Design the sequence.
């Protein structure tokens, strides 16, 4: 099934970026000779760049092995639930022959041009001030949204955050917005380290799924 969101595995990262820019989308389908190959997100390209992959790298060289797709036996309600939970712009339905039999698009199902961040779907909570060793900030402050690098001993992650949540008097959690949420959960930050992170420094952090590493906000 061919759409303007489909590209060949021989496309380069630069060509994929240009296609995303033209379409104003962050997720493309990789298909070759009628066979489904995988999905390419803007996050995949960002991670490749962080790992010093040149822009003429083929997209087939950076595809994730673990992706979310639907099968013909999945119900429509199950597919909708998955798309909402993981903020999927699209969800291909792939059969046992690796053929795409249908593609569900977010805008067609939910009537919105693209998935909104979770924070945009919740009513704004009341502002309150927390103190971490004298450094005060709102507990729920959407200005803390942004892109971060979480470096672990095994690999680096580029994560997008949509808000900080107060866990207890010792820790906050950085809530992840993109597809890495299932892999990392939330990133836990000690309140005493918040000042350094806010000032652009690298701090020690851990993911609620168990990974430990260093966290830095991208400028």
Sequence:
């Amino acid at each position: 099934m061919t759409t303007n969101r489909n590209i060949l595995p021989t496309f380069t990262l630069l060509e994929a970026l240009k296609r995303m820019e033209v379409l104003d989308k962050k997720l493309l389908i990789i298909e070759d000779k009628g066979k489904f190959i995988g999905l390419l997100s803007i996050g995949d390209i960002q991670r490749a760049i962080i790992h010093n992959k040149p822009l003429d790298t083929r997209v087939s060289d950076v595809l994730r092995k673990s992706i979310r797709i639907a099968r013909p036996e999945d119900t429509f309600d199950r597919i909708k639930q998955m798309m909402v939970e993981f903020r999927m712009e699209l969800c291909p339905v792939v059969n046992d022959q690796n053929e795409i039999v249908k593609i569900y698009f977010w805008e067609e199902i939910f009537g919105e041009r693209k998935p909104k961040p979770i924070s945009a779907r919740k009513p704004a909570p009341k502002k309150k001030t927390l103190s971490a060793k004298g450094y005060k900030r709102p507990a729920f402050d959407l200005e803390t949204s942004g892109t971060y690098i979480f470096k672990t001993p095994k690999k680096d992650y580029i994560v997008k955050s949509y808000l900080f949540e107060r866990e207890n008097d010792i820790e906050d959690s950085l809530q992840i917005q993109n597809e890495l949420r299932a892999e990392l959960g939330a990133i836990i930050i000690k309140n005493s380290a918040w000042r350094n992170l806010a000032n652009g420094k690298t701090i020690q952090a851990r993911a609620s799924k168990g990974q430990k590493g260093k966290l830095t906000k991208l400028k």
